[in-house]
Each structure stands twice: as C-alpha cells, then as structure tokens.
Amino acid sequence: MGQQVLSTRHRIQHDTREWVDTGKMKGFRSASLSFIERLYDKGHSYYIEFFTSINEDRTEHVDAGVSILESIKGELDGGWLFTIKGLIAAEIFADFIEMAEYLLSNGYKDPAAVMTGSVLEEHLRQLCLKNGLDTEVVHGGKKKPKTADLMNADLTKASIYNKLDQKSVTAWLGLRNNAAHGNYNEYDTQQVENMMQGITNFITRNPV
User: Fold this and answer.
1) Is 133 buried (19+), middle (13-18) or exposed (0-12) by CB count in 10 A?
2) What is the pLDDT of residues 165-198, one digit of tens each?
3) What is the sign, positive or negative, of the torsion defined by CA atoms of 133, 137, 138, 142?
4) Yes or no: is domain 84-205 CATH 1.20.120?
5) Tens of pLDDT, residues 135-144
6) Can you give the pTM of this predicted structure?
7) Domain limits of the chain?
8) Which helix (H) or strand (E) holds 18?
C-alpha cells in the first residue's frame, strides 16, 4: 500500500518538496494505524511513532511509515508469534482472519500463514473442549497440550468432522509449520490465500 501511495508523488510549483495523493495517504495511514492497534495496542511505541510522525501528504512521511511497517514485519518474520491462547477467543476469530488477510494483501504471506494456522489450531482446541475430548496428554508424569495433529485425529475419530476435512486440516497445519520454521519457499501466496479461505469455511461449518 505504501508503494501505491509513493507512485502518486508529485511536486507543486515553487516547492522543492515531493507530495503524494491526499486520499491514498489517508487510506494508508488509517489502515496502518488500525493494523498496528490490533497487533499491539495504542500504547505501543510503533503505534505512537506512526500516529505522531506520519501526518502529512509528503513522500518522507510515507517512507517513514513503510519503515515502521517493515520493522513490524521483521518481528513477525523473526519468529515473534502470537500468544494465541491469550489473544484469541472464539468470538474474535474473524478479526484475526481479517488481520491475516491484511498482511497477505500487503505482501506478508509468511506471518499471514502463521496467524491463520494459529487460529485453526485454537479452533481445534475449542472443538475438543466443546465435544468433551481431552486437549492434554500425560508425558513423563506431566500434562502437556496436545499437538494440533493429534487433536485433528481425535476429532475425526469422534466423527466431529469427516476424513476429507481431516486431510485439509493436515495440509493447512503443514503450511503453517513451514511458515513458522522459515521454510518460505515451500509455499506461495496463492496457497496461503487458499488456506485462509478453506479455514474460514471450515470454522463456519464446524462452529464452537
């Protein structure tokens, strides 16, 4: 989006500064602030910096905004993952899918894949709880959370959904794992988009 704004750069007569389209700049600023607020909050340094520094229709303000977003992308790509258990409840799954769509539309396929896969994993956990299935296993005398693959198998055995859904879930989890472990060349943007659409449909058909 930032590059689209920069493509409108122009100069005004007798002014050495470069300006950009006002409407596109407002859209870029609003979308970016909304994204940062959802990802962190209004008190985070990224939000404060963006809010206070990116407020004029000039190219240097767009460049500064893009730099902040690239820093956020660096955190995501560097393994900064969402604490899904604390962030996601069933009623806000759609918000996280929307955030993932925003990331994907701006070229960030890898964090989009991680976020969408994490939404799926939490949904599997909620489905298990809803249907009285264990979400933990005992290993070495200690309880540990079940893996998403094991929950997927348990839900299929309990006929909560069919084997075709099980295969789809397995594929989506595989793509998420590739993203989380830095295997970015194992999938492309279209596959992430298909994954997001598939998971959205799966959650709709199998509500908690």
Assistant:
1) middle
2) 999 999 999 999 999 888 999 999 999 999 999 9
3) negative
4) yes
5) 998 888 888 8
6) 0.59
7) 2-77, 84-205
8) strand 18-19
